[in-house]
Amino acid sequence: MDLLLIALVFLLLAAAQAVLIARFGLRGFAYRRAFSRPSATAGDTVEFVEVIRNRGPLFLPWVRLESRVPPTFEFHTKEEVDIRGNNYHKSVFTLAPFSQVTRRHRVLLKKRGHFCLTQASMTAGDLLGMRLLNRDMDAPAEIFVYPALVSWDDASLPSSRAQGEVGVPRWIQPDSFLVNGIRGYQPGDPEKEIHWAATARTGELQVKTHDFTADPRLMVLINGQKSEDQWGNLMDYEQDRIEYAISLAATMCLSALNQGMEAGFAANMPLDEEEESACLLPGRGAGQEEALLRGFARLRIQQSRTFPTFLEQLPRLTGADVVILSCYDSDSIRAQMRVIRGLGNSVSLRILPEVPHA
User: Fold this and answer.
1) How many CB atoms lie within 10 A of CB 259?
2) Which pTM does this prediction carry?
3) Which residues lie across from 222 on neighbouring strands?
4) d(CA 54, CA 261)
């Protein structure tokens, strides 16, 4: 009789704690996570910090948190975590009343990218597993992983090393105060450059032309196609040469900025989930280096348009040194290079080397 009474009391207590946890256990529950810094370089190791808090008076025997993580994150941790298939991160916690648990995981960032973790799936239960609670929680965590830089020698600025065309650095741009003549209006000419007196004399729109003054500008253009007849997007194992191009472009831009030049880049690939081709025009000063590196991190290797079409639709550039990074050469690329050169730029084409697949 005593054993039956004890068993009955135990069952009643178990049912009571299951009901209490089900109704009130998660009212004081909070979870947040973050990386130890907002940006890093591919190959760096950062900390991934999880903070879970129980602000309620009930003991939570176990809470499991699961979320999808990029396969390029390599976790090195002694905590109770499980990385399944390099895609799902799982942590299990036990929380006393009015307590907080902080866990720090070391994560190797193996690849460039812009990574945004959004939701986590939470499952909690009572001591005997009589009731399970499930909830999807917003738990944002973001990090920009910049491309690893290449050798400074490999990233030399326009010179005779360029393929197909010998690049002649100009490092000049028109000086608005040095007017040296007039010419016929061309589509894209700014309205402020129209010479109204000459227009009235000739009966056709005329614009001012300027002498050039030294002011270095570098524009790097990345071709996201591996061949001229590529029609689909590249598989992961086919992207190594394009990844090398992104690293090379980043190194060239940083080298230019360090030398006091303006630098920018564009590619026939979008940023994150955008649809338009990436384009960051040359600039310098505070913030330009970070803007460039974040742009390179956000580049998605997916063809937004063919490279010749991309060159044709590129914003009008003048007085810049343009470097094209491409896996191949073609007549259509050469034709667009002549157009860009005709606008007062120097243009060089650098053919990317084969890169062994990692």
Assistant:
1) 12
2) 0.77
3) 267, 325
4) 53
